[in-house]
Design a protein that fits this description.
The protein is α/β, with parallel strands linked by helices. The protein is built from ten helices and eight strands. The protein has an eight-stranded parallel β-sheet with strand order 7-6-5-4-3-2-1-8. It binds pyridoxal-5'-phosphate (PLP).
Amino acid sequence: MSSFLDDLTCVQERISKAAARSGRSEHDVRLIAVTKTVDVPLIREAIAAGLTEFGENRVQEAMAKAPLLPPHITWHLVGTLQRNKARHAVSLFSMVHSLDSVELARELDRRAAMAGLTIDALMQVNVAREPQKSGAEPEAVGALLNEISGFANVCVRGLMVMAPYSADPEAARPWFRLGRQLFSDLARLSLPNVRMEQLSMGMSGDFEVAIEEGATMVRIGSALFGQRPGRADADRDCNCSTHKGEGEAHF
Ligand SMILES: *Cc1c(COP(=O)(O)O)cnc(C)c1O
């Protein structure tokens, strides 16, 4: 078995166990396989294994890969979107996870209307107020949604949240909890074109904690495809109990 299939099995198992711990089923958590820097042949392997939802952080890179891959898969934009790429973004991505301003919503709305479609988006919230990260300030989200609800061709489907980088997944828990709280509070708003359905949070280092705290989508790259070039060469072992051979004979 290829190492990709091993890693996929392991990630899926961890997702379903974390979902069970939060009283949910694995079917309540969507796996977005993040394929930035991943080559097309490996993406094909992921598609052959049954994955259908893929994430990229650059419009250009997704545009280069998408035509080489089957049309039944869907693409999520997980990285920052520059307004001058909105035209390409609306035609390629089924969901933009990085909406964080009225200006970007206006441009997405305009481009989506021109293309005769609507674009689903998640509001990215900078829960930890990290200066290097994009995302709306938590207390600004309500007012932003109020304005964005006037754009008929942008449908806000929920929130995207990132925890600050840490080697300890537990460090992410308070930030995910804050994201979940905001999500629940905003769900009480009644605005056109805004529905709090999806909570996108959790990456390779912290997705189990994110699921325990209520994530409905996890965005996973390196735990599936290995470390990306240019990053510290951590081993790609995925802490899967079945692979560690609990109770199995060791030779
Ligand atoms: C790269 C990226 C991911 C996946 O990161 P991994 O740690 O490799 O799982 C998820 N979300 C966003 C926004 C990303 O840019």
